[in-house]
Amino acid sequence: MNRIVLELSTFIVYSLALVSMKKPLTGMESLVRKEGIVYSDLDPDGEVRVDGIIWRARHLESEKGPVKKGEFVIVEKVGNLTLLVRRKP
């Protein structure tokens, strides 16, 4: 019984340490890996809505054709106030 309590306590302390070391994301960096919906066609530039806000965006795979309004995208990077996105698989 004591061993189980010790292992559980160790796990909890370790988990809390990991969480406290993780740098919080704020601003535009917090948008990376989020899903958005295309607000105006991306060919390769256009607009997407992420978390209820409309952003300028650029389609990273423009050679595959434009992404049409209403399609879903994933934010890959952020650069110069523009979201760099890929079509959601």
Features:
OB fold (Dihydrolipoamide Acetyltransferase, E2P); 5 strands; five-stranded mixed β-barrel; elongated; 37% strand
Brief write-up:
With 89 residues, the chain is of the alpha+beta class. The protein is built from one helix and five strands.
Task: Give a description of the structure.
It is a single chain. This protein is α+β, with helices and mostly antiparallel strands. It has a single domain, classed as OB fold (Dihydrolipoamide Acetyltransferase, E2P), CATH 2.40.50. It contains one helix and five strands. It has one helix at residues 2-21; strands spanning 35-40, 45-50, 53-59, 72-79, 82-87. Strands 1-2-3-5-4 form a five-stranded mixed barrel. The N and C termini lie far apart (48 Å).
Largest sheet: 5 strands, mixed, barrel
Domain count = 1
**CATH class assignment:** Mainly Beta
Quote the beta fraction.
35-45%
User: What is the CATH topology descriptor?
Assistant: OB fold (Dihydrolipoamide Acetyltransferase, E2P)
Helix content: 10-25%
Which strand order do you get reading across the main beta sheet? 1-2-3-5-4
Amino- and carboxy-terminal Cα gap? 48 Å
Fourth CATH level, the homologous superfamily: Nucleic acid-binding proteins
Give the number of helices: 1
Low-confidence stretches: none
CATH architecture identity: Beta Barrel
Rg result: 20 Å
Shape: elongated
Summing up helix and strand content along with how strands pair, one would put the structural category as alpha+beta
Number of strands: 5
